[in-house]
Amino acid sequence: MSTASPSFLQRLFGRADPRDNLRPLYAAVIAQGRQPHWYVEGAVPDTLDGRFDMIVAILAQILMRLEQQGGAQDSVWLTELFVDDMDGQLRQEGIGDVVVGKHIGKMMSALGGRISAYRAALTGDSSLDEALRRNLYRGTPVSDSAVAHVEAALRARWVRLGCLTRDALLKGDLG
């Protein structure tokens, strides 16, 4: 995860980055997405794409919860932190300036699609199992027990998120 320092102009004029309050939450999303159980018991591919997909699954839940709490601006700022981080990750992988934007566009499209799929699944309008197989495993055959592990963990997180106050959420209390 990249941690951008305040810009020269922000330091000069004393303006704080409004996204600073969301950095603990973003760090918690990344930490949650890197937990080994997703990749061991859950059989999520331990690849760049697999880690991206796992982080997006967790981020989607957080963005949905912020939306429920009336935190539209918080969602925007959290998404901006995600974009900045992914931009930095792509550049570290050697992706050049010319195509970084295209990759970021695809990532944002993936995030939007996953938010829709996971929202429908978590509200009972569709199957989370199917959404995970399609979006997290990208159609690769995976055992039912692995999918069940991920589904149970994501559902438990969703219930916990529903109990959190905005302040607890912003502190990154994802437990």
Descriptive report:
The protein is mainly α and 175 residues long. The chain has one domain. It has nine helices and no strands. Helix 4 runs antiparallel to helix 5, helix 5 crosses helix 6 and helix 6 packs antiparallel against helix 7. 25% of the residues are buried. The model has no long low-confidence stretch (mean pLDDT 87).
Kindly, what is the distance between the CA atoms of the first and last residues, rounded to a whole number of angstroms?
A: 19 Å
Kindly name the structural category. mainly alpha
Number of helices: 9
Q: Mean pLDDT, rounded to whole units?
A: 87
Q: What is the H/E string?
A: HHHHHHHHH
The number of strands is 0
Please, how many domains?
A: 1
For the CA atoms, what is the radius of gyration?
A: 16 Å
**For the report, how would you describe the main beta sheet?**
none
Helical content (DSSP H or I, runs of 4+): 55-70%
As a percent range, the share of strand residues is under 5%
Low-confidence stretches: none
Quick one: overall form? Answer: globular
